[in-house]
TrEMBL record:
This is Thiazole synthase. PANTHER family: THIAZOLE SYNTHASE. Gene3D superfamilies: Aldolase class I. The lineage of its organism: Bacteria, Pseudomonadati, Lentisphaerota, Lentisphaeria, Victivallales. Its EC number is 2.8.1.10. The active site is at 97 (schiff-base intermediate with dxp). It comes from the Bacteria. GO terms for cellular component: cytoplasm. The keyword Transferase applies. It comes from Victivallis lenta. Homotetramer. Forms heterodimers with either ThiH or ThiS. 1-deoxy-D-xylulose 5-phosphate binds at residues 158, 184-185, 206-207. Pathway: Cofactor biosynthesis; thiamine diphosphate biosynthesis. InterPro entries: Aldolase_TIM (IPR013785), Thiazole_synthase_ThiG (IPR033983), ThiG (IPR008867).
Length: 257
C-alpha cells in the first residue's frame, strides 16, 4: 500500500476526523488524542478565524501536529462555497473541504456546482478536497481540474449505514490517480476497515465518533481498525477463490492405507 500523500504532505494516519457534533471542547480534545489523526475538518461558521487562540473549536487542535481543513458546509451553490473559501484563505487556511448540498434532508452533494466551485478554488491556489457522490465520472472530472483528492460518500452524511456505495467506490478507486478518501455514512470501525481494504487511501469520520457514548474510546477503536486494515493490505492477502483449498496435502491419510 503506497504512502498517503496529499498536496505534497505525507500523512502517517489514514484516519481523518470531523469536529462537528462533539458535546464539548474537552470531548473533542480527547477524541483527537485517541484518534492519532493528522487532519481535521471544521466548518467556517464554528470558528472565529480572527482569534484562533480563544476557547473555541480551534483551541482543542494542536496545529503543529494536525492540519485544519475548513469545509464549506452550508453552501448551496458554487458562489457561496467560493465565498467561504476566500474568507478562509484570507485568514491563512489553504486546505478546503468543498461541500455543496442544497438538499437539507439528504445532504447529497451537487455535482454541477461542486465542479464549478472546484475549478475556481484550484485557480485560487487552494488545496481542494471535494465531497461528492460515489460517481466515477464526476470524480474523474474533479481530478482533471486539479483537486488534491476526491471524497466520495459511503452513505448519506451522519447515517451510519456503512458502504452502501461499494460498487461505485471500487470503480473510483480503480480509476483515480489522486487519493480517494471515503467520507460520510461510516458508522462502525468495521466500515472504515472495509473502505481501506477496498483500496481507499483514507476515511473521514465524524458522527460515529462524536455521537458515541464515549467519543475517545470510539476514536481509538477506529484508529485500531484502520491501522489493522492497512497492515492487512500491506501484507498482501491471498486472493479469494470460488472453491476450497486444503491447508494440508491431500495424501495425508495415505499412511493409513
Amino acid at each position: 500500500m503506497k504512502d498517503l500523500v496529499i498536496a505534497g504532505k505525507k500523512f502517517n494516519s489514514r484516519f481523518f476526523l470531523g469536529t462537528g457534533k462533539f458535546a464539548s471542547k474537552q470531548q473533542l480534545a480527547a477524541a483527537l488524542a485517541a484518534s492519532g489523526t493528522e487532519l481535521v475538518t471544521t466548518a467556517l461558521t464554528r470558528v472565529d478565524l480572527a482569534v484562533p487562540e480563544q476557547d473555541d473549536i480551534l483551541g482543542a487542535i494542536d496545529r503543529s501536529k494536525i492540519e485544519i481543513m475548513l469545509n464549506t458546509s452550508g453552501a448551496r451553490n458554487a458562489e457561496e462555497a467560493v465565498r467561504i473559501a476566500k474568507l478562509g484563505k484570507a485568514a491563512g487556511y489553504q486546505w478546503i473541504k468543498l461541500e455543496i448540498h442544497p438538499d437539507a434532508h439528504y445532504l447529497l452533494p451537487d455535482p454541477v456546482e461542486t465542479l464549478k466551485a472546484a475549478e475556481e478554488m484550484v485557480k485560487m491556489g487552494l488545496v481542494v478536497l471535494p465531497y461528492i457522490n460515489a460517481d466515477p465520472v464526476i470524480a474523474r472530472r474533479l481530478e482533471d481540474c486539479g483537486t488534491a483528492a476526491v471524497m466520495p460518500l459511503g452513505a448519506p452524511i451522519g447515517s451510519n449505514q456503512g458502504l452502501r456505495t461499494q460498487a461505485m467506490l471500487e470503480i473510483i478507486i480503480e480509476q483515480s490517480n489522486i487519493p480517494v478518501v471515503v467520507d460520510a455514512g461510516i458508522g462502525l470501525p468495521s466500515h472504515a476497515a472495509a473502505a481501506i481494504e477496498l483500496g481507499a487511501d483514507a476515511v473521514l469520520i465524524n458522527t460515529a465518533v462524536a455521537a458515541a457514548d464515549d467519543p475517545a474510546l470510539m476514536a481509538e477503536a477506529f484508529r485500531l481498525a484502520i491501522r489493522s486494515a492497512e497492515l492487512g493490505v500491506k501484507a498482501g492477502p491471498p486472493a479469494a477463490i470460488s472453491g476450497a483449498s486444503a491447508t494440508s496435502p491431500q495424501n495425508t491419510f495415505d499412511i493409513f492405507r
